[in-house]
Amino acid sequence: MEGGRIRQWLNLLVCALLLLIAEASYVPITYLQSAVAKGAVCLDGSPPAYHFDKGSGKGINSWLVAFEGGGWCNNVTTCLSRKTNRLGSSKQMAKQIAFSGIMSNRQMFNPDFYYWNRVKVRYCDGSSFTGDVEEVNPVTKLHFRGARIFAAVMEDLLAKGMKNARNAIISGCSAGGLTSVLHCDRFGALLPIGARVKCLSDAGYFINARDVTGAYHIQQYFGQVVATHGSARNLPQSCTSRLSPKLCFFPQYLASHITTPIFFVNAAYDSWQIKNILAPGVADPDGHWHSCKLDINNCSPDQLDLMQGFRTEFLRALTVLGNSSYKGMFIDSCYAHCQTEMQETWLRSDSPELEKTTIAKAVADWFYERRTFHQIDCPYPCNPTCHNRVFEPQDGHQGKNVTSKGTSDASARKLNFPKLTTNKARWIELVCINGGINGLLLTLGLMRKQEKANPIGLNNFVALYRLQ
Q1: Can you list the alpha helix ranges (DSSP code H) found in 279-412?
Q2: Do the beta carbons of residue 77 and residue 123 sit within 8 Å?
Q3: CB-based burial of residue 344 (10 Å sphere; 0-12 exposed, 13-18 middle, 19+ buried)?
Q4: Is 270 designated active site?
């Protein structure tokens, strides 16, 4: 009896590890050296970078351009701290990153966009690609040139074939999701007349809300970002002509004026916003919210009441979108942040659903105009399909899901999984069908016979285990 149970657990482990390998593809980095002469550089002056996985077949003229997230820097001190890591220097970026979720090149994991040209633009300016300050301080040597990076990358991609696009999406997660909002119409204007061009913002609908002390901490913070980077001139004029530039960093004040179709994927209890807008450290010096922010299951009834109030504020900020078919939304009640580039939340058997619809299907149906989608979830904890995030105690920004070890920023992790050919990946899919370890032995044998290739070795499994 006990032996059978152990065998079941081993079967599950094998399936999980192999599916983890099969779900992602790895794409090398491209440094845009030509951008340096234009002053389009990272905070440290290094060239901008992106990862490009070329489309195929009928997707050769379809483009998905996703912008990486990673917060912002709001003054010289916080921007200097980024100069020595990947969020401020392309010298520190991984040479290849995983593409999964909406970026996946596998039909079973991404049925509507897998064959498109897919581009991940790396984030190294700290302003959601809005800054442009000509002067460079000789002491700090900081370059605030996010808007120039956006322009240089777009110019390069247009030259590589995007000028012929028939379908195109600008997307992003977190600060990248805000990028897709702020640059939505600008992106649309670059593409050919007649092309189907739309925008997708994942966890980018940051709201201007009070913190637990009643202060507008996030408004002050965004104001500092705009001032430090000289962002005002690069924010949508439809907003800056009416409001202070610091308010135009909030989607709620400009979304109704965006003319390019746009879709919002967001958690009503966005974990980043709960941690940094509702209960930032400055508003909670004694750490009463610390345990709650790490895991929503640890929240007290009073804290949950305040979080329900935040949800109400969030939904009120969404009302500016109206019911236009041009503006879609998938607003779940998960404690999460970024859901389109994680396979488990984008499209898998246990992915979050609204009206029995996954995020992948909702976005695709809306993009291809198969149906409109304006769904808002019932209040927490009503949705059993949610993947609620659980953060490590020492982890102020990243996190993991209770159902897996995935993170919202998987692209930043230096993964060293074995490279799989298409045939190998297909054989791997048979493992769970054929029954765990027995299936593994059968599949590896078939792989060896079929391709005369070495099977995936024990060392690789150990490496995968250590990574997790």
Answers
A1: 290-294, 301-318, 343-346, 359-367
A2: no
A3: buried
A4: yes
Considering the candidates 51, 183, 337, 387, report the single residue annotated as catalytic: 337
Is residue 387 part of the annotated active site? The answer reads no
Helix (H, G, I), strand (E, B) or coil at 416: coil
CA-to-CA distance for 359 and 399, rounded, in angstroms?
20
Cβ partners under 8 Å of residue 444, min gap 6: 455, 456
Tokens 């913002």 map to which residue? 201
- Strand partners of residue 327: 262
Instruction: Give dist(CA 464, CA 318) in Å, integer.
Output: 41
- CB neighbour list of residue 26: distance below 8 Å, 6 or more residues apart: 96, 97, 98, 99, 415, 417, 419
Tens-digit pLDDT profile for residues 313-341:
999 999 999 999 999 999 999 999 999 99
50 with 66: CB under 8 angstroms? Answer: no
Instruction: With CA atoms as reference, report the closest residue to 154 among 194, 114, 197.
Output: 197
pTM > 0.85: no
Annotation says 288 is catalytic = no
DSSP assignment, residue 295? B
Determine the pLDDT at residue 392. Answer: 84
Our CA angle for 368, 372, 376, nearest 5°, is: 130
- How many other C-beta atoms are found inside a 10 Å radius of the C-beta of residue 81? 14
| 3-class secondary-structure state, position 356 | coil
**Residue 375: beta bridge partners?**
330
Encoded tokens for 454? 């070495």
Q: Is-contact 388 296, C-beta < 8 A?
A: yes
* Cis amide leading into 245 (omega within 30): no
The pLDDT of residue 393? 79
Q: Looking at 53, 270, 284, 332, which residue is catalytic?
A: 270
CATH of 29-391, picked from 1.10.8, 3.30.300, 3.40.50, 3.40.1130, is 3.40.50
Given a cut of 70, the residues of the chain with pLDDT beneath it are 1-24, 394-468
Specify the pairing of strand 62-67 against strand 117-121: parallel
Coil vs helix vs strand at 198: strand
Alpha helices in 47-168 (DSSP H): 76-82, 146-159
